[in-house]
Amino acid sequence: MRLILVFFLAALASCGTEGGAAEPLRVTVTSLPTAYLGERYVAHVSASGGIRPYFYKIKGDLPEGIAFANGNFTGIPRKKGKFKFSLIVNDAALSNRSVNYTLEVADPPPPVLNVKQPSSETDAPFIAVFKLSNRPTTAFRLHLNLKNLKPNLENLKFSPDLLYVLRYDPKKQTLDVDGAFTSVVKGVEVLRLELSPTKKLRPRLKPQVQFFNIKGEPYTPKAPKRPADEGRYAFDDLRAIAATWPQPQRKTKNADSDAPKPKLNKEDAATDAKSKAATNGDTSPTPNQAKTPAPKANEAAPPKTPPEGKQLTNSGKESQDEVKPKAKDLKQTPALPGDLDHNGKVDQADLKLLRSSYAFNPGGKLTPDKPKPGEEKEQKKSEGQQPDNEKSQTESKNTPPPADNSSPAGSSSNEEMP
Questions:
Q1: Which domains does the chain have, with CATH numbers?
Q2: Distance CA 25, CA 165 (A)
Q3: SS3 of residue 211 by DSSP
Q4: Buried b / exposed e across 260-274, counting CB within 10 Å, b at 16+?
């Protein structure tokens, strides 16, 4: 019996090694990647050497929502923190190794908007490509400084899943974009922007962006710094439109339309013809139909049924007043989020209405730009107003000088004394 056991262990050792003595058992993974709160986590640990098969065991507490089996960590963590535990690996020869791990569960990091742009100086037009990193997002707010770069807004291309509003200030050379996706996206190309340098330079585009996660919450609390403005609608209205935006329907082949129609006998064909005639509004009697006899003079006419929404008077005539339904029968239709024009649906008309009066920074303090020397005078002239210096000169000419109290009554100051 002992000889059989020794032979079996030797065979296992030969299977676990490639010639010669078996390597010592060891764990090849010494650290684990960070897990993010609310996102699916997958990690794998492995061992080598010793005699297969390996047996894994966890000593300690794993993060809530994470499970371990056969060297795999899987699950969705539900609590932040740093969790320490040990992994013990045994092989068929009863050898074991232990490794200490620290698995950190943190808040999801914000996405990154990577910009593909020329890496050397240029004075020729180029296309800057803005691509989202592999992090889920639903919306963003963007501020971009375009100093010495002139954008071609006519050739601006956005992602097909993006609803956006943009504002370009040629004086400050800044571009603001608020965007909301109609579905959760990650790793997509957000926009392509053609730029023409006003002088030879090396482009260094660094967008300021605030992203929003699946729950609609911002990854970072601070929004990009942008000039304040006023408008009827704001960023929340744009996200409401995107949340209820109609999704494109996939075209499905109708099996009933392609199926061959069964042949009908004479009786079924006659019945089918009657139903089609009734559908098309043909009320002429068929040969098999019996004619309805006209009522006799002494017989009373059947009671007249009022049409829907009307009532009859005592004389049998229709009343002009409609029957109003009771208040409890009226169903109030709930307001549809994003339906800005209140027509019961969300479409391009709502997006157009939002763009007509949109505030990029409604909470900011409105500070109008101070006019440069000479601009205020020209502005007043264009508005039909008289500048202050010219106005004062005109008033001084039209104002008569004060009267002299020493002059006799009834005489003016311009007359000569005798």
A1: 30-106 (2.60.40.10), 113-224 (2.60.40.680), 230-245+336-358 (no CATH)
A2: 60
A3: strand
A4: eeeeeeeeeeeeeee
Give the strand pairing for 96-106 and 35-36. Answer: parallel
What span, in angstroms and rounded, lies between the C-alpha atoms of 294 and 274?
Answer: 23
pLDDT tens digit string along 328-362? Answer: 444 444 589 999 999 999 999 999 999 999 999 87
What confidence score (pLDDT) does residue 108 get?
Answer: 87
Q: What value does the mean pLDDT take over residues 291-299? A: 54
- Selection from 176, 186, 200 nearest residue 122 by Cα: 200
The structure tokens listed for 75 are 């699950």
When pLDDT is averaged across residues 136-148 and rounded to a whole number, the result is: 96
> How far does CA 361 lie from the centroid of its chain?
18
Identify the CA nearest to 33 among candidates 69, 74, 61: 74
| DSSP string of 61-118, one letter each residue | -PPTTEEEETTEEEE---S-EEEEEEEEEE-TTS-EEEEEEEEEEEPPPPP-EEEE--
Residue 122: strand pairing partners? 201
Whether the model pTM is above 0.90: no
CA distance 338 to 244: 7
Any idea what the Cα angle at residue 158 is, between residues 364 and 195, rounded to 5°? Answer: 80
Residue predicted with more confidence, 165 or 3: 165
The C-alpha atoms of residue 9 and residue 51 are separated, in whole angstroms, by 9
What is the per-residue DSSP string for 261-289? PPP--HHHHHHHHHHHHHHTT--PPPTTS
What span, in angstroms and rounded, lies between the C-alpha atoms of 357 and 248?
27
DSSP result, 181-209: EEEEE-S-EEEEEEEEESSSB------EE
The CA–CA distances, whole Å, from 109 to 35, 86, 105, 207 equal 11, 27, 12, 17
Instruction: Please name every residue paired with 332 in a beta bridge, in sequence order, or none if there are none.
Output: none
Instruction: Please state the φ and ψ torsions of residue 176, each to the nearest 5 degrees.
Output: -115, 135
Which residue carries 């002009």 as its tokens? 320
Residues with Cβ within 8 Å of 188's Cβ and at least 6 positions away in sequence, in order, are 131, 132, 159, 161
